[in-house]
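User: Hey, quick favor. My workstation is busy. Could you predict this chain's structure for me?
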Amino acid sequence: MKINDTFKKLAPSYLFAGIANKVAAYKRENPDKKVISLGIGDVTRPLIKPAVDALMKAAAEMGTAEGFRGYGPEQGYDFLRSSVAAYYAGRGVSLQADEIFISDGAKSDLGNFLDIFPRGMKALIPDPVYPAYVDGNIMSGNEIAYMNATPENGFLPMPSDVGERADVIYLCSPNNPTGAAYTFDELKEWVKYALEQGSLIIYDAAYERFIEEDDCPHTIFSVPGARGCAVEICSFSKMAGFTGLRCGWTVVPHELQGNAINAAWLRRQCVKFNGVPYIVQRAAEAVLTPAGLKAADENIEYYKNNARVIGKALDKAGIRYYGGKNSPYIWMECGMPSWDYFDKLLTKAQVVGTPGAGFGKNGEGFFRLTAFSDADSTAEAAARIAALK
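Assistant: No problem, here it is.
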């Protein structure tokens, strides 16, 4: 049986898997060393109590004849879709429940959404970028054009940085890995451009709950006209610690190609997806209550404080960096090839981060640190980095 030729164009291993293998090997050879990870963006705070309570209640329901549920709707239960719509209403954005599709996380939908489009289309992707955007398009046999994200444009490429039209445009705000976030006026330019070009924006808003600046929208649908050119992909992973539960959502407005994209995505999901478990959706619903959001924000503030601790240590050491505000990521200059710095940081300071080169050619010379460790480990790791010569 022949493997799809597009897979031959992928890097030998996924970025974070490669890092994990390197770290595991170092730990085996140095069992006496305390290694602190500020690398992969996984949360560490316990699941918030409203979500745990909802999980337990829903699990008990499933253990009764009256409360048992089997296959659920592929697009999500009405109770959660309505809760997501209410969440957007709190941002001043009106959505219909059938424009919201519950998923098992943003990463899945970012790749799976390509199923509804022709193979060989052109995707416009920022560089540096979350690797799943690139790998998903390579697997689908698509042509990729890159737009440069650099210190000169604040790591926020604009339509003026685009050299050629693309069918699909990927935007991530707040950005992974750089932590940069688009303002309302900047997103307004992107919406105008996409409408003029007939392009679709795939907007990754997985970190929107970290936004703290008033001029940075939490959703692209705050921008007039966005319903005619954008889908938005969100996640409970970072906002509520669902990395182990898996739940997110994708908004597909009816206005996109006369509802054709919404209908195609629904059809795709009905064929290839059996939906998110009932108990997980009940937990997600609990997150979107006032008590749930309050508890979630307390965890987010914990991570934001970790980011401030890292930032202060880098400031003291005279290391230039970006991010750390509106985002759990710190994007620092490392002064050497980023994989060399990875090895240096691991072997000399026993700290793990992510080499910028893993996010694209413009990531070379940069290094990503995350704020998702516990406070004590973050402070210790920051001090080690600042002291590293």
